[in-house]
User: Fold this.
Amino acid sequence: MRQTKNILVAPLNWGLGHATRCIPIIKDLQQQGHRLIIASDGLALELLKREFPNLEFEPLPSYNITYAKNAFFNRWHLLKQMPHILKTIKKEKKKTAELIKKHHLDLIISDNRFGVYSSDVKSVYITHQLKVLSGWTTPITTFIHYIIYKKYDKIWVPDVADEPNLSGKLGHNTKIPGNKIKYLGILSRMQPQKMEKKYDLLAILSGPEPQRTQLEKILLQKFKQLNIKTALIRGVINNDKDVENQHLTTIYNYVTAKDMEQLINRSDAVICRSGYTSVMDMASMQKKVLMIPTPGQDEQIYLAKHLAEKFGVTVQRQDNINLSDNILDNLKCIDII
Assistant:
């Protein structure tokens, strides 16, 4: 009989991508009969509470990472936040030690939370960024990330090991010993289904502020000029009404994973960021997609370029979005399945 383990799953709260890609992992561990404790903060923690109301939850210190309003200053803006980030890592280590004693943990799974690990408990680190792109500072940021994740027993990369793959050079660093890396395949909470069409174009917003709000404003203005049925998922969790309508656009504040899956299945095409979780979801759903990388985020800019070159995905810059009623004719899927 399989031994039941006490497992801590701790995704980073930086947008909702880290939390959502942990959903299939959590479900798989549940099916195996293990006891799950979920630890995070902010919207990521709230999302997982809604998805798994019967699990145990623990709060973790907040990184509260933000981007500059002007993408040009992003690197300096992030650099200024480093003292706070380092303090948060220290607090995470202390909290993790407390959780090990409280829940008698047998395994720790950290999705990009730098301080959630232990030398006394087997610790796994989830990342698709073995190489961290940051412009001219890429060698430095990659080395710093290596120093962080080498402390873990295993590195889980949500991608396929061979070509073609989704993460490109981000997730395929041959300098790391092969026995320490496990490629999980494409992780997605979504499954494609044949369903009655409801929308021509669905926009899914994600990521940190203020860029999420800026893209929302741009898209809602662009949608007003179209004569096709559109929808927009704002990706925020608040107490306002969940759904509203503007012209031919339906606006959702937040939807569950199941509702998101239905909305994607009932739409002809999707607009989203080129964040890695969104990339995996679109590859899994096999939907035509338009990707708009977050300005100043080198990882998303690279992923968008990689997907355009490998799969012919349409990419537009946030400051130069061009939508038309016949846009669906020019979009392609991420055809890796």
Notes: The first strand starts at residue 6 and ends at 11. The two ends are 34 Å apart (CA to CA). The chain has two domains: 6-183, 199-330.
